[in-house]
Amino acid sequence: MKNFLLKLFLFISIVTISILTFYFYYEYRFREISYKESLNSIFIWGDSQAKAGFDLEKISKITGRNVYSAAKGGAGVYDFLVFTEIVPDNSVVVLSISQLAQLRGRDKNTGGIPFKSIYQLVVNHFEDLLPSIRNNLQPKELFTSSSALYPYRDTITFHEPISKFQEIYFTNGSQYQEKQKLFTYGIKRLIDKRCKLVFVEFPFHPLLVDVIIKSPFNVGTKRFNKDILKLFPKSQYDTLNITTKKRMMYDLTHLNEFGAKLITDSIFETDSLFSKQTVHWVVINGGVCE
Questions:
Q1: How confident is the model at residue 79 (pLDDT cuts 50, 70, 90)?
Q2: HEC secondary structure over 177-227
Q3: How is 52-65 classified by DSSP, letter by letter?
Q4: Measuring CA to CA, how many Å separate 256 from each of 101, 114, 152?
Q5: Is the pTM of this model over 0.85?
Q6: Is the pLDDT reported for residue 15 higher than 80?
Q7: DSSP character for 124?
Q8: Rg (CA), the chain
Q9: Are 253 and 209 in contact (CB under 8 A)?
Q10: What distance lies between CA 181 and its chain's CA centroid?
Q11: Domain presence at residue 118
């Protein structure tokens, strides 16, 4: 009996020490990021569409600001909560909350394990809670200032079949409303931090448009965009129409290097998008993206 109690005590002690170690590590890490980053910065969040869609070095050159991107493939709502916790007050923040980020059944969620963000998963009964904790036991860098763009090609690359997107858009979206609640919570956190927000909606290849339109979740994700803009006193939709004869898409969902540079120029050379008075939701017209 004594051996059992001793082992139980040691187990509880090890677990407690491990949790406290991770807690203080991440709290220290987050404070250091907040202290280091000045107001002369732009913070970006999104999934692989944003990662492939922005030329970070070009943004820095155009704006004269430091650029820190947390956009990554498979990024999910938990990553977003961590991002909103780290971003300093009064920052310029560019967000791309894609339909896929709302509908995917499993996200990578590798942004860290701050307790405030985990708590939001608990109270919302989010089914990715345990996988999110498991994915973050080994610390990873959240931000990068270096681009990872897809090369230009004259033909589309098909990494994923249409059937995979049909599965996401027709069967995997059962928890999207829970995700939307968490995204809304994170956006409100950025509002409380007095951040200047710009939302960007990247295009899909026309082959996916029919799948998206017929999805039973399409109306709900479109409504979410409008509900988000209602959080702000003054907001507007902007459609970014780009005329070019060159191919902009690398595959069905991602821009290539040419498209990313074109989009970066079009968005970040427009000073009015970053005014304090109006929050903009920029929709990139996909008609030129074949």
A1: confident
A2: HHHHHHHHHHHHHHHHCCCEEEEEECCCCHHHHHHHHHCCCHHHHHHHHHH
A3: HH--HHHHHHHH-S
A4: 20, 34, 5
A5: no
A6: no
A7: T
A8: 20
A9: no
A10: 15
A11: yes
Task: Please identify which residue in the block is written with the tokens 């956009």.
Answer: 71
Report if residue 265 sits inside a domain.
yes
Give the DSSP per-residue string, 58-117. HHHHHH-SEEEE---TT--HHHHHHHHHHSPTT-EEEEE--HHHHH-S-----S---HHH
**pLDDT top residue among 255 and 134:** 255
Contacts of 33 (CB under 8 A, 6+ apart): 86, 88, 142, 143
pLDDT of 191 over the 90 cut: yes
| Res 288 pLDDT > 50 | no
Which residue range is the domain that position 150 belongs to? 41-288
Query: Could you read off the pLDDT of 25-61 as tens digits, one per residue?
Result: 555 555 445 545 556 899 999 999 999 999 999 999 9
The letter for the amino acid at 212 is: I
Structural domain contains residue 33? no
- Please write the tens of the pLDDT for every residue from 155-189: 887 878 888 888 888 886 667 888 899 999 999 99
CATH classification of the domain holding 250: 3.40.50
Q: Is 120 helix (H, G, I), strand (E, B) or coil?
A: helix
Q: How many domains does the chain have?
A: 1
Instruction: Evaluate whether residue 31 is within a structural domain.
Output: no
